[in-house]
Design a protein that fits this description.
This protein is α/β, with parallel strands linked by helices and 320 residues long. The chain has helices at residues 11-22, 60-67, 82-87, 89-109, 143-162, 187-196, 216-228, 247-257, 284-290, 298-312, and strands spanning 2-6, 26-31, 50-54, 72-75, 114-117, 119-120, 166-171, 173-175, 202-204, 210-211, 213-215, 236-239, 245-246, 267-269. It binds nicotinamide-adenine-dinucleotide.
């Protein structure tokens, strides 16, 4: 099969590139390196069945050439950071909405077999009832969440209007190797980098806001189940652990697992505007339809991540 993975040089995209190159599929990784990195995919560059296209999903001429003979699309390219979406809402809307529309349109024109579009739990806003299932109101308070809601609706409209086979995984927070730990990064990577460098983790507000974390290996497995699923699934589908952990507890757990208990403590600073209070997944639908449940608990996942981080840093995990 010929697969296009947009955002393939990013955290999740690079793990998917790796999996499918290994399996012998032809993989085209398209990325404009807004937040992705060449380090994430450099171990794939010598494989004949891997092709890197440096480019932007907003460029429809380029997409037209790339999508022409593609069988499947994994659309992960996005401006993914909530903080950055406050500062650069136009960039966020342009990429996440219009970029997605470009991808959908090309998929429609070239009869792509299936497109798996990455949604996010950030569409829900703070939980009004828990755990959050797919019928929870879409109350995202920030431009990033708004852009993801709009993109989900576009996917749904393309599925209903043109019969496009679109699948919309709504992932809760994902963590693991290759997640950025500098600038706009994942909280687990950022905490781990600081703690292993003997700096205290910075916690916004009281740290009692909760999140639901899933290890990247469980997410790749979820994607693979969606890739192989042979019926249509145009409604969003949650992927999360169903377990919540506060940011403060997370910081303390990483301190403990890094062997720094007693020498480091989280430092609280002012809360961030519009930060969601509570996120916890009901992934019952994924379980029912795909028999997916996460296999890696937070403690085990963090332990492995910290060990990997110690040896390779966050953006290295050579497995091929
Ligand atoms: N990491 C998470 O916890 C999480 C949770 C829910 C949903 N998601 C979604 O999963 C997808 C991947 O996220 P990630 O965590 O791997 O982030 P990431 O930043 O590592 O990956 C996004 C990739 O998209 C690329 N990109 C951005 N704009 C582009 C454009 N216009 N054209 C081409 N490439 C572009 C970036 O350079 C980057 O490589 C995103 O759509 C994100 O919204 C992530």
């Amino acid at each position: 099969m010929k697969l296009l993975i947009t955002g393939g040089a990013g955290f999740i995209g690079s793990s998917l590139c790796e999996k499918y190159v290994k399996e012998g599929h032809t993989v085209i990784c398209m990325d404009n390196f807004l937040s992705g990195s060449l380090t994430n995919i450099k171990h794939l560059l010598d494989f004949q069945n891997f092709k890197l296209v440096k480019g932007d999903i907003r460029n429809s001429d380029l997409l037209d050439r790339v999508v022409k003979d593609v069988d499947f699309i994994f659309n992960l390219a996005a401006q993914i950071h909530v903080d950055r979406s406050y500062v650069e809402p136009k960039l966020t809307f342009d990429i996440n909405i219009m970029g997605t529309q470009n991808v959908l349109e090309m998929a429609r024109l070239y009869d792509v077999k299936k497109i798996i579009h990455a949604s996010s739990s950030e569409v829900y806003g703070s939980a009004m009832n828990v755990p959050i299932d797919e019928n929870h109101p879409l109350n995202a308070p920030h431009p990033y969440g708004a852009s993801k809601i709009a993109a989900d609706r576009l996917c749904y409209a393309y599925a209903k209007t043109y019969g496009l086979n679109v699948v919309i995984p709504r992932m809760f927070n994902v963590y693991g190797p290759r997640q950025k730990s500098v600038g706009y990064g994942g909280v687990i990577s950022i905490f781990t980098r600081r703690i292993l460098s003997n700096f205290p983790p910075i916690v916004y507000g009281d740290g009692l806001q909760t999140r639901d974390y899933t290890h990247i290996d469980d997410v790749v497995r979820a994607y693979d189940l969606l890739f192989k699923y042979n019926k249509k699934l145009p409604e969003p589908i949650n992927f999360g652990s169903g377990k919540e952990i506060s940011i403060l507890d997370l910081a303390n757990l990483i301190i403990e697992l890094s062997g720094k208990k007693g020498s480091l403590k989280p430092v609280n600073v002012s809360p961030r505007i519009g930060e969601v209070d509570r996120l916890i997944a009901n992934a019952g639908k994924a379980n029912e339809i795909l028999e997916w449940t996460p296999k890696i608990g937070i403690k085990e996942g963090l332990n492995t991540f910290i060990q990997q981080y110690k040896y390779f840093g966050s953006e290295e995990r050579i497995t091929l």
